[in-house]
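cache lookup: miss for this entity combination. No prior model stored, computing from scratch. Input as submitted by user K.M.:
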Amino acid sequence: MMAPAPGQIAVRHVGELKGSIDVPGAKNAVLKLMVATILADGTYELSNVPQIADVAIMSDLLEAIGITTDVPAPGRLRMTNTGDLVPIAPYEQVERIRASINVLGPLLTRCGHVRLSMPGGDDFGARPIDLHVAGLEAMGAVFKFSHGDVEASADRLHGADVTFSFPSVGATENVLTAAVFADGVTSIDNAAREPEVIDLCEMLVSMGADISGVGSSRLVVRGVPRGSLRAVAHRTVPDRIQAATYRAALGVAGGELTIREARPDHMHNVLARFRDMGMEIEPIPDGVHAVAASRLRSIDVQTLPYPGIATDYKPLMITMLSVAEGVGIVTENLYPGRFRYIEELMRLGADVRTNGHHAVVRGVPRLSGAPVKAHDIRAGAAMVVAGLAAEGETVISGVDHIDRGYDDLVGRLRSVGADITRC
Ligand code: EPZ
């Protein structure tokens, strides 16, 4: 096997995967838990923290705001808020991750004023923040946009009835955290119900916030006085997207895996779709047991907000369908522009045609290895999965994208028999 160049991963299909993999904590939960520490002084302990680049980037952002972080042990994060906060989120940090927008609500409700640069993150085309702004404006915030910055101010936010036209994860989290100190009651209708949003609610409640309807599409937050919350210890919810990545790898390579820590109750729909593709999947006390004994079968899939099939699963599912028996139609309902990795899959011999927010995938018996690029976090992971289904060698560049959201993907796959190396 050719040694991969720095920043590259090389993968070869060598046969079935066998063994057990532990799923770490969820990126899309831990980043918001870290931001919630803005709300109250004290020292927080987060556990089940994934070793990913986005956690380091968020730590840098929070350090710039005035919250210190240290790592007492792998998988744990200690964060200290002395109350000496600077409500300004600089471009350098903000442009690197989308979750930086989540400092808007907590800084506004805690400090009465915030300025931050428009957020960056994975390039899926337009990613507006109009729902965040409309929700906070309904609570009395005044916004100003200039020179690429968002500025918001309000002496004290007041309760409001907020109804989202779309159950945005980020907008739900921003309005939710802002409402914690608002004067009165805030209701959020058509709120996002993702397990990561529930995890944030649970941490806020353990800090002393008054939130009801957790897990439903209607959240009700009764404002409490500033200074009445306390720092806590919290365990991050497992990462359902990373769990799905290992099942996708199994689906294309064949074999048998135990995926520990994965929460079947968070993945009901996607597990059902994997079964429709021919995989055997059983919940077990501490995770999921999965078997892929034969070639996958094609299915049609559409992405939807939770509890629908998450858009983050889609690159994995299209990769599975590219070697499945039959034709599958995949419809993207959240990010119509989230198809950039298709050209990379086609370099590997996949037969995929896109039309607007639909992709038609005709399964081929085997892909053929080639050099490909990771365009974003999930697209990068899908390239690794594709490499496990390809003749010869697949070399993936741009793996810093993968590092942003995956905790030792290469090591975990290697531990169950994959022929994969990185430099
Ligand atoms: C979160 O992004 C996740 N990121 C994304 O995961 C995930 O794809 C997405 O939720 C959907 O599940 C984090 O949690 C850090 P949204 P977020 O606001 O909050 C539109 C990954 O790979 N919208 O729910 O940015 C928006 O354009 C990442 O881990 C508005 O129109 O997603 C999109 O079409 C990628 N106006 C839809 O809603 C707004 O003000 C969903 O966005 C806000 C959103």
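stored under new cache key. The radius of gyration is 21 Å.
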